[in-house]
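Box 3.1 A note on notation
Throughout this textbook, protein chains are presented in two layers. The first layer is the amino acid sequence; the second is a token string describing backbone geometry. Keep the layers aligned when reading.
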Amino acid sequence: MSAKPIVKWAGGKRQLINKLIEYMPKDYKHYFEPFVGGGALLFELLPKKAVINDINEDLLCIYRSIADEEKYHFMLNELDKHELNHSEEYYYKVREMDRDPNYNNLPIWQRAARTIYLNKSCFNGLYRVNSKGYFNVPFGKKEKVYTYDKDNMEIIHNYFKTNDVTILNGDFVKAVENAKAGDFVYFDPPYDPMDNKESFTSYTKDNFTRDDQKRLANLFRELSNKGVHVMLSNHNTILIKELYKDFNIHVVHAKRMINSDSNGRGNVEEVIVTNY
């Protein structure tokens, strides 16, 4: 049994799942995903022991709420309320919630439901924040919105409840500090911008820089030297090819799904890098 992502996330891997499975190790002990995002590979594999991490706190509120029996049901009730009240005026009212100084003190299930609702009802399913960290995507003009698939949500809820899944919210280095030989780490970071092309990296108010890409490549090498199976996705850029030139680089084609301009959507070259 497998599940599907709950939210549409920039860089989501649903369309590349078969390629990722083709290139991942056949056997491994524990699963680590330091940039979990929408979790396409995680929910396809549903590993028994996993560590997932993301820098986006609102996203992690979703997974932590689903993993907790009481918070899970509170979140679903809140989502039902959002669906019932859905309108353009209501959308902007919910969007403004993170401008409140007490926003971070709200129950995590309430923040989780807000994030899912905005993701399902905003323009093009785009998660984007401004320099202050406020969600700023305009209304998507849907008359009705369906925020969740109950069967899919139940699969993920039961998965978190019945397996050993650690949910972290911090730097990617911290997320893999316990990875050992024989474990599997999958890195799906914000991508290096395509040469001379715009790239979407505003998942949090702090952009992922090229220095971060270099820091990640150093970590990839350290894990490889420890005997950890490591796989990474990124754009096929000069920088990425240089950083990972000592490893196996598989070029794949993916369709860019999230772009405010439909002309900016199309096939792009990505790489899947492995150390095995």
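DSSP finds ten helices and seven strands in the chain. The radius of gyration is 18 Å.
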